[in-house]
Specification:
The strands form two sheets. The chain has an eight-stranded antiparallel beta sheet with strand order 6-2-3-4-13-12-11-10. The chain has a five-stranded antiparallel beta sheet with strand order 5-1-7-8-9. The protein contains three helices and 13 strands. The chain starts with 10 loop residues before the first strand and ends in a 6-residue tail after the last strand. It has two domains: 116 residues, DNA Polymerase III, Chain A, domain 2; 60 residues, no CATH class. The chain is α+β, with helices and mostly antiparallel strands and 202 residues long. The longest helix is centred in the N-terminal third of the chain and has 11 residues. Helix 1 packs across helix 2.
Length: 202
Amino acid sequence: MSNATLRLEEKIIVALPPHEIKNSFKKMLPFMSEDETRYYLCGIYCHFERDKLTFCATNGHILCEMVVSPKVLEDGEFTVIMPANAIKHLIKVLPNSDNIPFMVIKVTEDNTEIEFESQDFNYKFKAIDGQFPNYKAMIPDGKIKMRHGMNAGYLMAALKALGNIPVDISIDENEDTANAPHLLTSSEVIGIRCVIMPMRME
């Protein structure tokens, strides 16, 4: 299965269990934007460096970052934005079975094309040609732990990503808490941070 042809050039290759990829994408799905005017948010940002693979999705109001540790098959790094249509298709077709221990992810050196491959499975597609925002600048340090009311729908999406566990809600300063980004984390889950942006009150 393929909707693009990868050029014959060196690729950066990592591998993850397919069910882990599928679960990661399912958790990120509620955070992807559907606003085509900001097309670069209509997908999942993916950055690999050293031994960490970082996923991020945001619609400008709610953001989720997830860090996983893949098996590195070839040294290097890449940064791509995987489009929403490819993400949704992969969620449908990636196997849940443990019979396939690893799914190989290949990215061309120019960060424009991506391939998912394993035994009897191959899916290729083009990355979104755009610049993902510096989302790390929007994530609070979480210095002050608090409990505070917020948009229920956004909160439910963040809690779904973190799981059915105790969650810490943090901001950076005590002053003006209603306008501060809220950081959601849990000591029981390593590698996931969610940020809910403040709502504009009329």
